[in-house]
């Protein structure tokens, strides 16, 4: 999830090549000294490549745990939308019209839709965003990161999540005769593949060959299930293994992808980073995504190992990486039915809140004593009002009688 934005991938690769920590991403890069970050934005790192993405995940995570995000945090996100409905990764001057220089993308737009749909009250914004997403669907049924770009598993999957969040049926969003699920099936490696059986590729190479990609597989499992970032554990199915099929159904794509993820996390409990310069380094974000994907597929037994590994190892990564990382871990805990306030001893909810505007305090629930007091005081008020009404009627009657006598 945290490396599916191509611009962020390139930035992360540059950071790693320069000798930064292997787990660093674009989200952890230091902002320019002259840049004043908006007060409604989560995180203090340069938002150029992930502003809308990390904001959307943070708002989703807070909403999922029952918090009410700060109004200015929500306003910042809605203010990033262009007139055509699309979102860019970050617009420093949101009041300016989006021109050709503003690089809008499907991932930021789809993430924003999922967040705003969950929060509610933003039907107009989500409808415009979904309309834009439909307008840039590729002929293979999928989406690329940017309009007109080659379709890929990650972008297609996050758009499927947005469509579902907005009340759409992804299977009915067709370009020609191809659906998003057709696109995902085309990127699913067969069960007899020598390497990565059942996995999904990010996209075919120039020769049309598919290579297993753990990040794409985690995203693709959710996409094939028709689910977004926020999901609860599906009905326990266990690891059914790879289901061989010439043209796999969406359900088989999800099953096969989950089988691959289960196998990939068995030995160490985590996925390994594919970024240049990060050989043999754990990929914390993709491991969290794998937990969500496995749980959503109903393979919670397989998900327990990577989830337990994250509880013991992901705290430092989340602190370094910021709000999107905390959100990913919160969503993983939610998918597992676990408590994100007790994640290996860490309170992920408070730690996420500390990276942005404080959430709005929820209304205090009335106790039985409070209700009794309210009822008794309410009864007293009604008695006083009732007496007043009776007295008023009597006075009115007398006055009306006097008036009548005057008429006589």
UniProtKB/TrEMBL annotation:
Keywords, comma-separated and alphabetical: Membrane, Repeat, Signal, Transmembrane, Transmembrane helix
Domain called Prenyltransferase alpha-alpha toroid: residue spans: 55-166
Pfam families per record: Prenyltrans
Endpoints of the signal sequence: 1-26
Database matches in InterPro entries: Prenyltrans (IPR001330), Terpenoid_cyclase/PrenylTrfase (IPR008930)
Transmembrane segments annotated in the record for this chain: 380-399
GO MF term set: catalytic activity
Protein name per the record: Prenyltransferase alpha-alpha toroid domain-containing protein
Provenance organism: Streptomyces mangrovisoli
């Amino acid at each position: 999830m945290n490396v599916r934005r191509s611009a962020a991938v390139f930035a992360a690769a540059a950071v790693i090549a320069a000798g930064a920590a292997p787990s660093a991403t674009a989200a952890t890069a230091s902002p320019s000294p002259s840049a004043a970050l908006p007060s409604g934005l989560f995180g203090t790192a340069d938002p150029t490549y992930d502003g809308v993405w990390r904001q959307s995940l943070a708002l989703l995570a807070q909403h999922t745990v029952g918090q009410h995000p700060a109004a200015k945090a929500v306003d910042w996100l809605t203010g990033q939308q262009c007139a055509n409905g699309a979102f860019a990764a970050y617009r420093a001057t949101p009041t300016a019209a989006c021109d050709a220089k503003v690089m809008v993308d499907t991932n930021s737009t789809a993430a924003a839709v999922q967040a705003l749909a969950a929060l509610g009250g933003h039907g107009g914004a989500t409808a415009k965003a979904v309309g834009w997403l439909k307008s840039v669907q590729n002929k293979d049924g999928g989406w690329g990161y940017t309009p007109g770009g080659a379709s890929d598993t990650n972008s297609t999957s996050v758009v499927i999540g947005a469509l579902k969040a907005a009340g759409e049926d992804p299977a009915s969003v067709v370009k020609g005769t191809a659906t998003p699920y057709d696109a995902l099936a085309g990127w699913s490696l067969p069960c007899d593949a020598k390497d990565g059986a059942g996995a999904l590729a990010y996209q075919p190479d120039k020769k049309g060959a598919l290579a297993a990609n753990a990040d794409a597989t985690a995203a693709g499992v959710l996409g094939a299930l028709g689910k977004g970032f926020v999901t609860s554990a599906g009905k326990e199915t266990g690891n059914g293994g790879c289901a061989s099929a010439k043209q796999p159904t969406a359900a088989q794509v999800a099953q096969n992808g989950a089988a691959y993820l289960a196998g990939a996390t068995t030995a160490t409990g985590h996925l390994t980073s594919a970024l240049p310069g990060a050989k043999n380094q754990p990929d914390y974000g993709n491991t969290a995504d794998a937990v969500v994907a496995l749980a959503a597929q109903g393979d919670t037994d397989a998900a327990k190992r990577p989830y337990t590994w994250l509880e013991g190892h992901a705290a430092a990564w989340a602190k370094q990486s910021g709000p999107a990382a905390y959100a990913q871990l919160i969503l993983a805990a939610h998918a597992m039915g676990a408590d994100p306030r007790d994640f290996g001893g860490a309170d992920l909810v408070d730690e996420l809140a500390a990276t942005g505007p404080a959430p709005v305090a929820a209304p205090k629930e009335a106790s039985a004593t409070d209700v009794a007091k309210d009822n008794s005081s309410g009864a007293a008020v009604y008695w006083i009002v009732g007496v007043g009404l009776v007295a008023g009627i009597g006075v009115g009657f007398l006055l009306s009688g006097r008036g009548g006598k005057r008429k006589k």
